[in-house]
UniProtKB/TrEMBL annotation:
It comes from Paractinoplanes toevensis. Residues 1-31 are annotated as: Disordered. This is Uncharacterized protein. InterPro entries: RmlC-like_jellyroll, RmlC_Cupin_sf.
Length: 299
């Protein structure tokens, strides 16, 4: 409910934060409709961003080298397919992995060499200004979006910064079927692919008060349903959205819009979610974050 501050009903307890007066819109970056920003041989790469993060998406068939120099903070590399292998190097350490894997790379200089055929995601914060500038929607963030506090990384890992690798094929939680990992800069929910459309009678509309949700469609087709609150000022109202996206695509869902994503393709549909910084609510649930011991939550 939204009431003018002089209306006594505005003092009624709701148990929820006050609805803000201004809102930012969503971001839908459909890589399939755009030429790659970078193309070398059989490797094509696109970029999209949110307030705090950049998503790099690469289609790879061969070998690709992804170096970072003077990286200001931790970043994530996701091998999204079984046919990929990677060698990660940083700080005198060398780690080799294969198959669906999440790599957390430390600040400083590093290199990830990836071989095979499949999809590679890199997640970096917007402190990596060189990468942020490549995003297809970079201009949308010339001014900060509404209702998002300044970015604060989570505490340094007790064992110090180093390369960490996490298997993305381990059993998920039962219900919800999440597979959650975090580091100082990101939380990743690597959900398993689903077959066929989602039951429209079992959608899950919900809101986030003060952070963006990045939904990355890796396979299939989805409709992202979004609805913004009504405030006392009609000039700030936004129309509902029912945006259809086909893989590969990135959607950034702004707070505090109500939203849910509906898989609609008859075959395989695969969507994963990314948050930067990590979510407090998921982190507060005992056993939900699989690598919580490596990255404790703020006190």
């Amino acid at each position: 409910m939204a009431y003018d501050p002089t209306d006594l009903r505005s003092t009624l307890p709701t148990g929820k934060p006050a609805v803000p007066e201004r809102f930012s819109g969503s971001e839908h970056v459909k890589f399939g409709d755009l030429p790659p920003v970078e193309k070398t041989g059989e490797i094509s790469t696109w970029y999209a961003r949110g307030q705090n993060f950049v998503v790099s998406y690469s289609d790879l068939d061969g070998t690709a080298l992804f170096p970072r120099q003077d990286q200001p903070d931790e970043y994530v590399v996701l091998l999204a397919d079984d046919g990929l292998s990677a060698t990660a190097e940083a700080g005198g350490e060398r780690v080799t992995v294969s198959g669906k894997t999440m790599l957390v790379m430390p600040p400083g200089d590093s290199t990830v060499t990836i071989t095979g055929r499949g999809r590679v995601l890199r997640l970096l914060t917007t402190k990596s200004a060189d990468v942020a500038a490549l995003a297809a929607n970079a201009a949308s963030y010339d001014e900060p979006h509404e209702n998002i506090p300044p970015f604060q990384p989570w505490p340094d890992p007790p064992g110090g910064f180093r390369i960490r690798a996490y298997d993305l094929t381990v059993p998920s939680l039962a219900n919800p079927a999440f597979r959650l990992y975090r580091c100082t800069t990101f939380m990743v929910n690597f959900i398993d692919p689903k077959q066929g459309p989602r039951d429209p009678a079992k959608l899950s509309p919900h809101t986030h008060d003060d952070f963006e949700q990045c939904s990355i469609v890796l396979a299939g087709e989805y409709i992202h349903h979004l609805r913004w609150p009504w405030t006392t000022n009609k000039a700030n109202w936004r129309a509902d959205e029912h945006e259809r996206v086909v893989a590969p695509a990135v959607t950034v869902i702004p707070p505090p819009s109500q939203h849910t994503s509906e898989a609609v393709a008859p075959g395989t549909n695969h969507l994963i979610d990314v948050f930067s910084p990590p979510r407090f609510d998921f982190s507060a649930m005992d056993g939900w974050v699989f690598n919580a011991d490596d990255y404790p939550a703020p006190r």
